[in-house]
Design brief:
globular, OB fold (Dihydrolipoamide Acetyltransferase, E2P), 38% helix, Rossmann fold
């Protein structure tokens, strides 16, 4: 009953053939005269009716017999489709049709057209849905007070109307009720998941221990007010006896990593381990270096896990108190001594099962506790998205940049001006600076994009004698690490790379970013890449080289050129591409919203948030019934 129509067709009115408007499907009626199989220009069933010809290019023998019987018994065909002018007069190609007796009553409601799949006909769907409407409970799950306050139509009336509307019916109140119910079910499901996890036990961590105190005293800079606020929110969670489930979000370069390091020290001060998982080896390597700079002077032993480590080396690394790594952290043979905190960076790049696997590594059956979990994202999450798909998490936001971060100038240039860009790179490198040159693919593609391999060869030749490096995801881990180290040490002046440098790469001396075929990148990705420069004392620039510009690509580049605020960029990206791009694999196995739209229905999102909080407290049984109606068995999905 919640499989709702995509659209409707009007079969309640017969249209005379001569009045049929061009290009508009209508219902017509005509006596069947005869039927035949023709072979020119191709095999087809041709039905001759009164002033009308029907053509079927894919047909069964039973259809031929059906029309032959209709002609013999004087029955009529009612056909729905577009009427076109043909060689023999008015024609319809592959119409939907019924053989009926003359004068048989017409349909009383519009004909719903449902989403379907191969092997499942509209007729069968309509029959199943009609049966569901007659047998399933259509009782309202919402309290009357809530319906009245939000001026919501009744559930029974709304669903029945959407399946069987009359011509001219106003369907908006019914759709509004459906969209609100869907948002409420999602909100309730998230809250139930949050409560289930909060009911579990977690280790109570020391948040004022000697290592943490020493670290804060030795910091060569002051934390921003936003960093201090977020640090306090995280530490408050860590001293609770239930697991933290917090998302830390902040714009590129806002200083999230240092908050994660502080949380890790709370775990070490408490005699526990902390694990930091990153989606790429380059980002994991960056964390390993940064954590080493910060924590090693305090005597904290670190471990670094990546794919391909020998068993002996892996065992030595696992003895560390703070472990940094890639997916290697969740391999079957990895065992932690006592995992108190799991940090997942760029969390949307991991699937649900991968994040759960890291947390489960810390399940201590003896103590019955689970580790605290901190997830981080440099892609700011629009407010409506945070209120819906991330409602099962506490969200902390670093909403200011550290002092000294200079804004990055963004330039849009046609790729025909490539020589100017090369000249600009020569100038920058002559002044001791470095540059990135980012390409969208590694090898030749059908899209005709300039590839990283081709660009590397051309740029190397064009910028001689400057040293140019090439970095992409298919290189062996050791080679990637060596190239990044050479770039960080200024032995490589220009780094040609794919989007592996999108996150985590921190080279303050790199002040110029060139993005090839920029129209092919998403908004958030462009913003992330731009954030790789502007980390030093010099003024930095991001040059977006574009080819053909049209439609959404033009909108994206206009937005990135005009806006530097990651949250506003994320909001516009949500409008352009929808929530799937932000969620990544977060909702693996769970559907995105089918009816509600986060941008259009912002008022309903906010109403659902408030209503869910009240309903779950005041009438938990009604809340569960509502979730069961909308999500069925899926309500038990673990939101990780």
């Amino acid at each position: 009953m919640l499989h709702l129509p995509l659209r409707y067709e009007d079969e309640t009115v017969l249209t005379p053939l001569e009045a049929a408007p061009p290009g508009t499907p209508v219902l017509v009626e005509a006596h069947v005269k005869r039927a035949e199989v023709a072979f020119r220009p191709r095999r087809q069933l041709v039905v001759h009716a009164e002033r009308l010809v029907l053509r079927f290019f894919n047909f069964y023998g039973s259809q031929l017999k059906q029309f032959e019987r209709a002609a013999e018994t004087g029955r009529v065909v009612r056909a729905f489709g577009e009427v076109r002018s043909g060689f023999l007069g008015a024609e319809m190609a592959h119409p939907r049709y019924r053989i009926v007796d003359p004068g048989e009553p017409l349909a009383q409601s519009l004909t719903p057209i449902y989403p379907t799949t191969a092997g499942l006909s509209q007729a069968e769907l309509r029959a199943r849905i009609t049966q569901a409407l007659e047998t399933e409970s259509l009782d309202d799950t919402l309290p009357s007070e809530l319906r009245e306050r939000l001026q919501l139509a009744g559930f029974r009336e709304s669903v029945t109307l959407l399946h069987r509307p009359q011509p001219g019916d106003d369907l908006e109140p019914a759709w509004r009720r459906v969209r609100f119910d869907e948002l409420l079910a999602q909100q309730l499901s998230m809250r139930f998941a949050y409560r289930r996890r909060r009911a579990r036990a977690a280790p109570v961590l020391e948040v004022n221990g000697p290592l943490l105190k020493a670290f804060l005293e030795r910091l060569p800079f002051r934390l921003t007010r936003a960093q201090t606020r977020v640090m306090n929110e995280v530490l408050k969670d860590l001293r609770e006896a239930h697991p933290m489930q917090r998302l830390l979000q902040g714009d590129v370069g806002s200083g999230k990593t240092i908050v994660a390091a502080i949380a890790c020290l709370a775990a070490v001060d408490s005699g526990a381990q902390a694990a930091v998982m990153a989606p790429t080896e380059i980002l994991a390597e960056q964390h390993w270096r940064k954590f080493g700079e910060w924590l090693a002077p305090l005597g904290v032993r670190l471990g670094y896990l990546r794919g391909g480590l020998r068993e002996k080396d892996k065992k030595a690394m696992l003895a560390g108190r703070v472990l940094v790594g890639t997916h290697a952290l969740i391999q079957g043979d990895v065992e932690f001594a006592r995992l108190g905190l799991a940090v997942v960076d760029e969390q949307h790049r991991f699937g649900v099962e991968q994040r759960l696997a890291l947390r489960k590594k810390g399940d201590a059956t003896a103590s019955g506790t689970v580790p605290h979990q901190l997830m981080m994202s440099a892609t700011p999450i629009p407010r409506t998205l945070a209120m819906t798909y991330y409602a099962d998490l506490d969200v902390s936001t670093i909403d200011e940049l550290p002092p000294g971060r200079r804004p990055v100038r963004t330039k849009l240039l046609s790729d025909k001006r490539r020589p100017e860009v090369l000249a600009r790179i020569r100038e920058a490198c002559a002044e001791g600076q470095q540059a990135y040159w980012v390409c969208p693919v590694i090898e030749e593609s059908k899209a005709g994009l300039r590839t990283a391999l081709e660009t590397y060869e051309k740029v190397s030749a064009e910028l001689k004698p400057l040293s140019v490096g090439l970095l992409h995801g298919r290189l062996p881990a050791a080679e990637k690490a060596a190239i990044m180290q050479a770039f960080q040490e200024n032995r490589i002046k220009v780094l040609v790379a794919t989007t592996v440098v999108e996150v985590g790469v921190d080279v303050p001396n790199a002040s110029l970013m060139v993005i090839e075929s920029a129209e092919r990148f998403g908004l958030s990705q462009l913003h992330q890449l731009r954030g790789r420069v502007g980390r030093g004392a010099r003024e930095s620039a991001c040059i977006l080289l574009y080819g053909e510009l049209a439609g959404l690509a033009r909108e994206r580049l206009k937005t990135i050129y005009e806006c530097a605020d990651g949250f506003e960029i994320a909001r516009q990206d949500l409008q352009l591409r929808g929530p799937g791009e932000f969620l990544g694999e977060r909702q693996s196995g769970a559907p995105l919203l089918r009816f509600a739209d986060l941008e259009r229905d912002r008022d309903l999102v906010e109403a659902a948030v408030v209503a869910a909080a009240r309903l779950i407290d005041e009438d938990a049984a009604a809340a569960r019934a509502h979730v069961a109606r909308w999500l069925g068995s899926r309500q038990e999905l673990t939101h990780a």
